[in-house]
Amino acid sequence: MAREPDKALTRATLVVLATLGTAVIATTNPGVVARITQKGLDYACQQGVAVLQKELEKITIPTFSGSFKIKHLGKGHYSFHSMAIRGFQLPSSQIKLAPSEGLDLSITNANVKMSGKWKARKNFIKTSGNFDLSVEGVSISAVLKLGFDPASGHCTVSCSRCNNHINSVRVHISGSSLGWLINLFHEKMESSLRNRMTSEICKVVTSSVSSKLQRYLETLPVTTRIDRVAGIDYSLVAPPTATTDSLDGQLKGEFFRWAHPSPPPFAPPPLAFPSDHDRMVYLGISNYFFNTAGFVYQQAGVLNLTVTDNVIPKESKFRLTTDVFGILIPQVAKMFPNMKVQLVFWASSPPHLTVHPEGLVLTPTLDAQAFAVLPNSSLAPLFVLRLVSGSQVWADEGSALGVGGPGCTCPGSDAPGSETRATVLTVSGFCGHSYIELFILSLP
User: Fold this and answer.
1) Is residue 29 in some structural domain?
2) Of the candidates 86, 276, 370, 409, which lies 20 to 30 Å from 127 by C-alpha distance?
3) Which of these three, 185, 219, 253, is where a domain ends?
C-alpha cells in the first residue's frame, strides 16, 4: 500500500510534463513581425488628432434634465436638449506604451463648446430659450489591453482602466425674459452637469472601446488575395507584446492556396528580431514567408515556362534548333535534322530561400524538357534537363540591390558566404527509343 502514493505522484508528474510538452508544441512562431515604436505612436497620434477632432464634433449629446428648488418658490424642473458640439480642442493628446498591457491613451486640458435649447417648468410657469455650454480642462486617461482571438487571428481590445477629470462647466442662458429663473440656480446646475459628465465619460469610453473599436477590429481582414492562385494570411499568432520601447505584432505571414487552403509541410523557424527602436516602424520577414510562396505556386503547377525559337532575337546566332543542340548531343541532330526545338521549364520542387546576414540565397530546382517540333507540328521528346542553382541577393547600406548568379562573386567577397553555389546541369532523355547516357556539366 505504501507504493500507491508514489504511483499517484508519478502519474501526476507525467500529466504535468505532457501538458507542458503540448504547450510547447502548440506554440506557433511568426512568419512576420511588425513593430511600432514610441516614435511611430507619436506620429500616428499627431496625424490622428485632426481627424479625431472632426469625429468628436459629430457626437450626438443626449438630453440632460434635472430639478431645482428655490426658496419661497418651491421645486421645478429643467432640461437641456438639441445640444450640438460647436468646437472640440485637444491641445495635448498622447498614446503611450503600457508594458504587458497595450496602449495608454491620454487627453489633457481638452475644451468643449456646445450650444442648444433649454426649457424649464414650475407649476403653470413654462419658459424656454437657448444656451451656450463651455466645458474646460477635460482630462481622460484610458489603458487599452490588447489581446488576440486564436480562432480568427484578430486583435482584441478592452478598456482595463479609465480615469477622468473636469475643471469647470459654465452655462450661459439666453433667449427668454424668464431666463433669470434658470440663472437663480445656475451654479448648482453647472455643478450637477460637471458631476454628471464626470461619471459618464469613462462609461462612454469603455462602452465605445467594446462596442465600436472592438467590432471594427473584428471587421479588418486577416487574409488578402494575391492572384487566382494564392493569398497571404497575416493573422495574429499571439497577443501583441507591449514593452517600454515598442509594440510588436506577431503575424502568421504565410502564403496559401486560395481555392484549397492547407498548411505547408514545414513550420516557421524562430524569428530573431533585433532590439532596435530608432525608427518609427520595423517589419521582420523570415524565410518561411517566401518559402510558403514557393511551395504554393509550385504545388499549383504555375511555375512553368515554354520557350520556342520565336522568342530568340532574330539577330542572335544561337537558335533553338536540333542542329545547335546536336553539338552537345549528336544523336539529336542525326535523328531530327534541321528541326526547331521547344523547351518547357518547370519547378520540380519548391524554390528554397535562406536568409543570411550577407543577403538572401535562393536555391531553385528546375526541370526542362526539350522537344523536337516535327513537320506536322507534333512534338517528339528529346531529353530532360535538371538545373540546380544557388543565387545570392545582397544589398549594402546606401547602395543598389545586387544579384549574384552562378560563378559570380558578391561585393566584399572576403565575407563568409559571399560566393554563390555552382550550378549543376544533369541531362538525360530519350530520342525515339534510344537512351542518351547521363552526364553532368559544371557550368562556369
Assistant:
1) no
2) 86
3) 219
